[in-house]
Predict the 3D structure of the following.
Amino acid sequence: MATKRIIADDDFGQIVLRSRRGARNITMRVKPDGLYLTVPPRSRTEAVLEALRPFRARLLEQYLQVKPKRIDFDYRIQAECFRLSLAPGSWKCFTIRHTEEGMVIYCPPGTDFALPDIQLLLRNAIIRALKRAAESYLPSLLATWAERFRLTYNKVRITGARSRWGSCSGTRTISLSCYLMLVPAHLMDYVILHELAHTKEMNHGPRFWELLDSFTEGQSLRLRAELRKFRTAF
């Protein structure tokens, strides 16, 4: 079998088979764009698909949870700190506005939501809206928590990272993902306090967790476990 092979599939859209040197077993992982299988070298495609069969139903349930939802006028994001909807507009281009109900993407007349290019454009617009909201909201929240615990940092950056909620560099630059706007407020606070703790302890040793526990009333490990289970709505 080739190092990488893509197979069209009615359930997952596509199944991506990748062989990896040293792999002894088949590993299966769902992603928003399909099912990814890592297999030992020289695995036969037919044998891999047969091995997948007993797990297909369970994996499909997971895939449906992460599969991107179609964005149209019924689409909503109703997070605790971020709300977004779509509405018909009179402009020739998609326009983002902040309203009392939250962020609104106004769509040009005749928008065809079935077109992949339109879906991609809307997803990019939502990311821009998230970044705009994050740039307005997160730096002041970070400053509030830093002042409360008498911690200092040099600057804050808002990023578009999906796989990392936040980070703190050796120069005390704190980076926060715009996707934090989609998590519950208490988990947003946890991420910020986690990064502020790194301004004192750059590792994840016992002293770091003791410090973070002092910020979170002894709840740091519970909050970490809750955050790891959280999946954003977008």
User: Anything to note?
Assistant: Residues 116-148 form the longest helix (33 residues). The mean pLDDT is 93.
